[in-house]
Write a structure and sequence with these properties.
This protein is about 25% helix and about 25% strand. It is α+β, with helices and mostly antiparallel strands. Helix 6 packs across helix 7 and helix 8 packs parallel to helix 9. The longest helix has 15 residues. The radius of gyration is 21 Å and the shape is globular. The protein starts with about 30 loop residues before the first strand and ends in a 5-residue tail after the last helix.
Length: about 475
């Protein structure tokens, strides 16, 4: 049995931060569990035995076996991920594996993909490299920061461990760069408390103190995540998926059923910060826009020749909530990766010039990971093992989707307006494309490994050693 809907799959670039050993680059990851999963090699959980176990799995499953450096000495590294990074360095040099292969916690990852479970303030942050400013891109409704007045467009002016010890963000950034902000935000543990001076969008400066807490990440916002926009009498569906996890299924089915009932035929799919997630959720999203294409190929999943028995052809499947869009505008940015890119790339052969990439170039991760477990050590190895392609066999967008989309429209990420607002720059440009208006093409490629641009001089703020949730939800704190 291969990789399909009944196994854990693709976490596309859900790691927009370091996926491996302390690198600050971002990465997007598809994840899957092959069947059968090779048994653990056993042994102790010493560093040396864990390194050896990881090497054996990588040698067996790695998609690019000719791009491994098997000469590196594991004893030269003080962590499993440091050793893995050295093993796959030749592939990284060719932009084939930008810290996509790494070891993580089985327990932590299972909790996130099942329910979005994580701990933090529940905000997604970006920083302005030219002016040393930090902004909230998105606030999760059931998390502590939203209840304290944080939302899209909020600027963090100062922060500290208590109200009387606030440090100016601009001063921190000038002296230490973005990592200085990450350090001061503290660990992703419930109960960690920080004080802030913030300026909400359109509001006055205020002081707040917030404690991190455990919360389930809602994959589709109840405020703006799914809407039917009236564009001059034409109804346009808008869907913003934050991450590809199991709890997204109900939200997605409800949203597309509403589109279906209202006769929506044109859709804006907003993936601008979506680093990826489960392949099965990506396949469901394809089905929900695949009415009339049932049985046709949605995607191909291809392993190295020695593992070709795991190859899968994934068809569009029948779902009762499906619509048949005549046009789709995909909003993407540097933080868009993996499962998000899989969905977008799969519709290019079917819609041609009636689909476009809006915003800026995406990360570029057409490869996916499988998960191999060593339970006694709580180790899950995410190893790049397969590539995804559309029905035309196209899947070489290692420099981002702008290189393969028939049409692209450059647009800013406008934090002065809420996501889903027709006045927001990227949504406005998407509506313009659907109306048939001309636009300026997205320039260049994303090529800078790990950089996540989210607007003029803006980048997603990333932890150097991300949690599972931070890998899958770029910019999350």
């Amino acid at each position: 049995m291969g990789i399909g809907r009944n196994v854990i799959a693709a976490t596309l670039a859900v790691s927009l931060a370091a996926c491996g050993g302390g690198d600050s680059s971002s990465s997007n990851n598809f994840t899957a569990s092959p069947t059968p999963t090779p048994p653990s090699t056993g042994g102790t959980c010493s560093l040396a035995s864990r390194q050896q176990w990881a090497r054996e799995q990588i040698e067996e499953w790695y998609l690019f076996p000719d791009l491994l450096d098997l000469s590196v000495d594991p004893a030269a590294f003080t962590s499993v991920n440091g050793y893995i990074n050295a093993l796959v360095a030749p592939a990284r040099a060719q932009s084939r594996d930008r810290f996509f292969t790494y070891v993580t916690s089985i327990e932590e990852e299972n909790a996130f993909f099942a329910s979005g479970s994580t701990a933090g303030f529940g905000i997604r942050l970006s920083y302005d490299t030219a002016n040393n400013r930090v902004f909230v891109l998105e606030a999760f409704e059931n998390a502590p920061a939203f209840a304290s007045g944080f939302d899209r467009g909020t600027e963090i002016i100062a922060l500290g461990e208590r109200p009387g010890a606030l440090e100016d963000v601009g001063t921190i950034m000038a002296a230490e760069g973005p990592q200085g902000i990450v350090d001061r935000l503290g660990p992703s543990d419930a109960g960690v408390t920080r004080s802030f001076r913030i300026r909400p969008r359109g509001g006055a400066v205020t002081a707040v103190t917030v404690s991190k807490a455990d919360f389930p990440l809602d994959p589709v916002s109840d405020r703006y995540g799914a809407q039917v926009l009236n564009d001059g009498g034409k109804l346009v569906g808008y869907i913003n998926l934050r991450t590809f996890i199991d709890t997204a299924e109900s939200d997605l089915r409800t949203a597309y059923d509403a589109f279906r009932q209202q006769g929506v035929r044109e859709v804006i799919v907003d993936f601008r910060y979506n680093g990826g997630g489960l392949v099965r959720t990506a396949e469901l999203m394809g089905d929900l826009m695949g009415a009339g294409r049932v049985g046709s190929t949605f995607s191909f999943t291809t392993f190295r020749p020695s593992k070709s028995e795991n190859n899968v052809t994934e068809p569009f499947e029948q779902v009762s909530q499906a619509i048949a869009p005549t046009k789709i505008a995909f909003i993407g940015r540097g933080g868009t990766a993996s499962a998000s890119e899989l969905v977008a790339n799969s519709f290019i052969p079917y819609l041609g010039n009636n689909t476009a990439l809006i915003g800026e170039n995406t990360f570029g991760k057409p490869v996916g990971q499988i998960g191999l477990d060593q339970p006694e050590c709580d180790d899950r190895l995410r190893v790049v093992a397969f590539q995804s392609q559309n029905v035309n066999g196209e899947g070489e967008y290692f420099t981002g989707l702008a290189s393969v989309f028939p049409q692209t429209c450059e647009a800013a990420d406008d934090v002065s307006n809420q996501l889903g607002d027709p006045a927001e720059a990227s949504v406005a440009k998407a509506l313009g494309f659907l109306r048939g208006e001309t636009c300026s093409a997205i320039a260049g490629t994303n090529g800078e490994q790990g950089v996540r641009s989210v607007g003029p001089r803006q980048q997603l703020l990333q932890a150097a050693e991300p949690t599972v949730a931070q890998r899958e939800t770029p910019g999350l704190f």
